[in-house]
Amino acid sequence: MSKKGRVFSGARPTGRQHLGNYLGAIRNYVTMQSQYDCVYCVVDLHALTTMETTRDLKQNTFEMAPDWLAAGIDPKESIVFVQSHVPQVTELYTILSMVSSLGKLTDLPTFKDKVRLQPNNVNLGLVGYPVLMTADIVLYKANFVPVGIDQAPHIEYARETVRSFNYRYNSTALIEPEMVVTTVPKVLGTDGQRKMGKSENNHIELALTPEETQKVVMTMVTDPQRLRRADPGNPDVCNVFSMHKTFSSPEEVEMINTECRRAGIGCVDCKKIYAKNLNANLAPFRERRAAFESNPGAIWDILHDGARRAREIAEATMVEVRAAVGLPE
Ligand code: ADP
To answer: Which of 99, 178, 281, 306 has the CA that lies 20 to 30 A from 262?
Structure first.
């Protein structure tokens, strides 16, 4: 039965999900399930744009599912699948390419970022990334797309592409999607500077052990002006303090806010408290994840069943799209 509308989102299988993915996107994936038809996709084709080797692709694709399921995505309620299992997306990508402006694509900040990260591999897929993402979203006629704020230019691009397509072909086949962000739409990495991300290698994976988590947390950059333990710190510019707001109790947040400013607590102790609270928050997730991961057969069944359900929606859209374009039946 149809709910209030459809939701689509995806993430690249470039490794396990991290705190940025969780706070910026997955939390909304979970909460939106009760009100919307949700479609969540492991975008393996998108991952190819940045990969030097596909050696780990299958394993990484598999590993996404336990992260999502353990976070609370219910495969009976929502469709969870792998992008390449629905080939209609590449057909739509080709069709949308013809209403996509190359100049706009190369002007996008996300494209420029990728060029900075991999100057020797500026492939056509990298330029077309937002077009493939548009195809993903509109293939399922999604009304809403829960993503981190970094994806804002891509969603705007998708909306423009839908308008171009519908105008060019005098069609109403495609729907303009709306972006939905969480209360923490941009999580900074351990460097305290850039967006947390796998490609920046400044991330904290959800599925680390408590010991590994503590080790990574201890490398986090705090207030850069606070050089010595005796110096007063400024929580307003400290990424560790921002993270405390999500994972620590209001009393602890208040204590750190006060004590840091008068050098009553040092950065090492502050980070230890954060690591402890983060681990406590993630413990139930990690337990559920281990249970899912120990049953790979069930995970692949969920992904294949999701693909079957996704293909039905995708093919229905493509029938409309082919007709709108005027391709022969
Ligand atoms: P990554 O950037 O680590 O490669 P993806 O590009 O696959 O991750 O992103 C998957 C989802 O997680 C997207 O909706 C993206 O906006 C969100 N996301 C990723 N990193 C962050 C972050 N640091 N803060 C907020 N949301 C994020």
So the answer is: 281
